[in-house]
């Protein structure tokens, strides 16, 4: 278990359909009337236009001086329209201001109407993997078909996708943008829809490390579940048994494997093979070494999801703000 030096587990189930979470890291706080907060609001409010006016829909920038300097960045997946991208960045930025009232570092990966990332911090984005504040969401439902077969297909897809997403730019198999979405046929009735992306500041090796860590974390806790999301500040991974994003609209499904019988109960003795997803240098590069907490706020719709937080310690306070919204806040 040395792979999880900062693992502590909380599992919470609640009703959700699309995942839209804001992850607020308690690495420091500021008062609401501070210059830092004013700068944060300004740079986040500019993000929708700053991101969509950049080729490739990636923008990073900073505002302010000294301790009041705020770094922020925004990114949309390739293929997004400018309108979808702008809406997504705005949702994320507004959500962060609302859900993270006084945390100096936070991020969000909303999936609607496209997939995008917004994050801000009081330090510059380092260009290395920041594993602080990574979070897993998973469906509570289990895979009902042959789990051995499922794991084989899932691993094959995920390993191939990590290779494509993280391949060095300008190499033959490279996506050139640290992004890939793909579909694999699980059986004649079900497909696996997977999507992954790294931030462009990472090296190819760090992108691979980040995605492998996400896949490994997911598999070690939740390998029999019917779908999941792993969010980190530097990379994103999601898979599900339905097309949860416009990203899948133009992707052909590879020919289905031979006919299999559905609804075979999961075999209890089939451990997920974690070795395939383990990076050779599996050390945790925890930037500060002292993650003091995470606050996660989730906007909720309707399928059951389990949330797992990786952190030294964190506090969750449940507050229901409306029928549509459940908020964890402290
Ligand atoms: C960022 O905030 C943390 C926590 O308040 C603090 O320790 C650190 O010095 C700050 N960094 C900068 C560059 O201001
Ligand atoms: C946040 O502020 C509170 C008091 O307002 C303080 O007790 C706490 O230590 C601060 N947390 C961090 C991580 O700076
Ligand atoms: C940060 O916000 C929390 C709750 O929103 C509050 O209890 C805490 O005192 C705030 N800390 C600072 C330094 O404003
Ligand atoms: C913020 O407001 C508090 C009182 O509400 C005040 O003591 C403090 O000096 C203010 N800070 C700034 C930076 O204006
Ligand atoms: C970001 O957007 C603001 C407001 O639209 C604009 O003033 C600023 O020049 C933009 N910055 C960049 C680097 O495009
Ligand atoms: C934006 O990203 C580029 C490339 O990673 C980096 O060189 C630059 O310093 C970043 N700018 C800011 C303000 O963080
Ligand atoms: C499950 O799939 C594996 C690998 O495809 C196969 O060897 C095994 O016979 C299957 N089990 C059942 C019960 O169909």
From TrEMBL:
<keyword id="KW-1133">Transmembrane helix</keyword>
<feature type="region of interest" description="Disordered">
    <location>
        <begin position="263"/>
        <end position="286"/>
    </location>
</feature>
<feature type="signal peptide">
    <location>
        <begin position="1"/>
        <end position="21"/>
    </location>
</feature>
<keyword id="KW-0677">Repeat</keyword>
<keyword id="KW-0812">Transmembrane</keyword>
<dbReference type="InterPro" id="IPR002902">
    <property type="entry name" value="GNK2"/>
</dbReference>
<dbReference type="Pfam" id="PF01657">
    <property type="entry name" value="Stress-antifung"/>
</dbReference>
<feature type="domain" description="Gnk2-homologous">
    <location>
        <begin position="131"/>
        <end position="244"/>
    </location>
</feature>
<keyword id="KW-0472">Membrane</keyword>
<dbReference type="InterPro" id="IPR038408">
    <property type="entry name" value="GNK2_sf"/>
</dbReference>
<feature type="domain" description="Gnk2-homologous">
    <location>
        <begin position="18"/>
        <end position="125"/>
    </location>
</feature>
<protein>
    <recommendedName>
        <fullName>Gnk2-homologous domain-containing protein</fullName>
    </recommendedName>
</protein>
<feature type="transmembrane region" description="Helical">
    <location>
        <begin position="294"/>
        <end position="316"/>
    </location>
</feature>
<keyword id="KW-0732">Signal</keyword>
